[in-house]
């Protein structure tokens, strides 16, 4: 069984490396994604990446990770294509962290374990950034480690899934 990890980045993360480098660093999202794919492969997992500035597109992609949604890969009978479902989701929801019940509901609805990642330490920033609609349901939350947080999340997801597979 191939472990599949979906890495989702929300609004404004396409500007990583350009936007407020004193907070988010100078590494571009494309570089994060390239390194993440390589790391996942070395851990025996496949990694797919997705970024959108639109809440609805992120909700659709979460549903597709479970084989649902308007663009999910399907068999001829319309059911989810076997082997195409994500085993885990790593999500940096950006500002949607603090506002999106829709993303929360999508993650809960698909019942795929997820890791919440933030490049900055959201707890050391403006008060509104301290609340997350996702953290209480995440398997793990990583923040304040810069883009290394993605590395830690992939390592955790790949190793955690490996343990689960061995128990089955």
Write a compact overview of the structure shown.
The protein has 168 residues and is α/β, with parallel strands linked by helices. It has helices at residues 21-24, 29-42, 55-65, 101-110, 148-167, and strands at 3-9, 45-51, 88-92, 114-118, 140-143. It has one domain (6-167): Rossmann fold (3-Layer(aba) Sandwich), CATH 3.40.50.9100.
3D structure, described in words:
The model has no long low-confidence stretch (mean pLDDT 88). The chain has a five-stranded parallel sheet with strand order 2-1-3-4-5, sandwiched between helices. The chain has helices at residues 21-24, 29-42, 55-65, 101-110, 148-167; strands spanning 3-9, 45-51, 88-92, 114-118, 140-143. It is α/β, with parallel strands linked by helices. Helix 4 links the parallel strand 3 and strand 4. The termini are close together. It has one domain: Dehydroquinase, class II (Rossmann fold, 3-Layer(aba) Sandwich), CATH 3.40.50.9100. Helix 2 runs parallel beside helix 5 and helix 3 runs parallel beside helix 4 (101-110).
Descriptive labels:
168 residues, alpha/beta, five-stranded parallel sheet, 5 helices, 35% helix
Task: Annotate the secondary structure layout.
Elements: E1 3-9, H1 21-24, H2 29-42, E2 45-51, H3 55-65, E3 88-92, H4 101-110, E4 114-118, E5 140-143, H5 148-167
Parallel strand pairs: 1-2, 1-3, 3-4, 4-5
Helix pairs in contact: 2-5, 3-4
Task: Assign the CATH architecture.
Answer: 3-Layer(aba) Sandwich
- SSE string: EHHEHEHEEH
CATH fold-level name: Rossmann fold
Number of beta-strand segments: 5
Based on secondary structure, the structural category is alpha/beta
């Amino acid at each position: 069984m191939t472990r599949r990890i979906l890495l989702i980045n929300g609004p404004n993360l396409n500007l990583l490396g350009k936007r407020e480098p004193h907070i988010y660093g100078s590494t571009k999202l494309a570089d994060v994604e390239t390194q993440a794919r390589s790391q996942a492969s070395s851990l025996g997992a496949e990694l797919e990446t997705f970024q959108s500035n639109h809440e609805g597109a992120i909700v659709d992609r979460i549903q597709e990770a479970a084989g649902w949604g308007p663009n999910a890969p399907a068999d001829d009978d319309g059911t989810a294509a076997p082997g195409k479902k994500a085993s885990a989701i790593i999500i940096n929801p950006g500002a949607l962290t603090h506002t999106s019940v829709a993303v929360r509901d999508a993650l809960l609805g698909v019942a795929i374990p997820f890791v919440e990642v933030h490049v900055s330490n959201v707890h050391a920033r403006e008060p509104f950034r301290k609340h997350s609609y996702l953290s209480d349901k995440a398997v793990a939350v990583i923040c304040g480690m810069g883009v290394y947080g993605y590395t830690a999340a992939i390592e955790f997801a790949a190793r955690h899934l490996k343990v689960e597979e061995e128990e089955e």
